[in-house]
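In this section we walk through a basic example: taking a raw amino acid sequence and producing a predicted 3D structure, encoded as discrete structure tokens. The instruction is simple. Fold the sequence below.
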Amino acid sequence: MMFTKTFGFAAAFAALASALPNNLANMVRRDNTAAGGSVLITNNLSVDVYAWSVTDVSGPMITLPANGGVYTEAWQTNPNGGGVSIKLSTDPNQQDVLQFEYTQAVDTIFWDLSCINMGSSSQFTKYGFAVLPTDSTSSCPSAICAAGDSACSDAYLIPTDNYATHGCPINTGLSLTIGQ
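The resulting token sequence is shown next.
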């Protein structure tokens, strides 16, 4: 009888574990940097940040608590062939949106930051934000928008700012830090 209970518990645990994404354990490392093939977003602002990932549908809104809240996302594809946008706002009503956008193309991840839907008085502009590859030996570029820089050349300010798009190896981990 004990064998049956133990086996049943083990089977239930295995079923639960198999329902989780295969790479869940590898998505965030102990040093709070993104593992390869993902982005880690860290909120260093003194206010909550709201995040939602958009493919062909909008995902659920997630709260990144003030002063260190994190969100991680493994690279995914958009079923309609477009890119993915992780939208970030300090307002749950989705005002002043900073976007981290990415698209997979075979062995490359193309990514950018977009300030197109963000006001110049945004908390993101006031305190700055930066994307850095987690592997210092990577040939992947970074994008840094310093505190107060409302005309940051490392981000899209208008839809034709294509110079702000970067390409990196698909297994690159990127860390987006909000509030320097």
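Looking at the output, two observations stand out. Confidence is low (pLDDT under 50) at residues 1-32. The first helix runs from residue 2 to 19. In the next section we compare this with other chains.
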